[in-house]
Write a structure and sequence with these properties.
The protein has 177 residues and is mostly helical. It folds into two domains: 3-73, Rna Polymerase Sigma Factor, Chain: A (Orthogonal Bundle); 93-176, Winged helix-like DNA-binding domain superfamily/Winged helix DNA-binding domain (Arc Repressor Mutant, subunit A). It contains eight helices and no strands. It is elongated, with a radius of gyration of 21 Å.
C-alpha cells in the first residue's frame, strides 16, 4: 500500500478508530484523544509499521489498544510512585475523614506543595511537571525541554530531593506553631 492510500485509509477509519480508543480508555474522551494522537504519531514516525499480515483496521486497532495500555500502565505506575514518594518522604500525614476539616487540610497541603514547587529552579519545576503531571518519561521530558537526558535526570533527582527538603522544613515549621 503506497503512502497516499495508507493515509486515506487512516482518515477513512478515523471515526471507528476514535470509537475504539474511547472504549480502550473507559470512555474518557480526553484520554482517548491523546491515545489516538499518540497512535497516529507512532504510525507517522514509523514506530509502528503496517506489514500486511492482517487488515489495516486490525493492525491499527492493535496499535491503539497497545498505546492505551501503555498509557494506563504509565499513569498507574506514576501515581503509585508519586503517592508513595510524597507520603514517605515529605510529611506522612494521616488521611483525614472527608469533611470540612479534611478539605481545609487538603487545601493547606496543596498550598504547601505549590509553595514548595515554587522554590525549585525553573528546569526542576519543568521536568517534574512533565513527568508527574504530563506523564512523560524523563527521556521525553528532556526532548521537550531540549536538554540532554543526563541533564534532565539530574534536574529530576535534584528537584525531587529539594522538594522533599522544602516539605520537611514546612512541616517542621507547622509543628512548631
Amino acid at each position: 500500500m503506497d503512502g497516499t492510500n495508507f493515509r486515506e485509509e487512516l482518515e477513512r477509519m478515523h471515526a471507528a478508530s476514535f470509537g475504539w480508543a474511547l472504549w480502550c480508555c473507559d470512555h474518557r474522551r480526553e484520554e482517548a484523544e491523546e491515545v489516538l494522537q499518540s497512535t497516529y504519531l507512532k504510525v507517522l514516525d514509523g514506530a509502528a509499521t503496517f506489514d500486511g499480515r492482517s487488515s489495516l483496521r486490525t493492525w491499527l486497532f492493535g496499535v491503539i489498544r497497545r498505546t492505551a495500555a501503555e498509557r494506563q500502565r504509565r499513569q498507574w505506575i506514576r501515581r503509585q510512585l508519586f503517592d508513595r514518594w510524597l507520603v514517605s518522604e515529605s510529611c506522612a500525614l494521616p488521611v483525614p475523614a472527608p469533611g470540612p476539616e479534611a478539605m481545609a487540610c487538603e487545601s493547606e497541603i496543596r498550598r504547601n506543595l505549590l509553595r514548595a514547587v515554587a522554590g525549585l529552579s525553573t528546569r526542576q519545576r519543568q521536568v517534574l511537571h512533565l513527568v508527574f503531571y504530563q506523564e512523560l518519561t524523563i527521556e521525553e521530558a528532556s526532548r521537550v525541554m531540549n536538554i540532554s537526558l543526563g541533564t534532565a535526570r539530574t534536574h529530576f533527582d535534584r528537584g525531587k530531593r529539594r522538594l522533599r527538603e522544602i516539605l520537611v522544613e514546612q512541616e517542621a515549621l507547622h509543628v512548631q506553631r
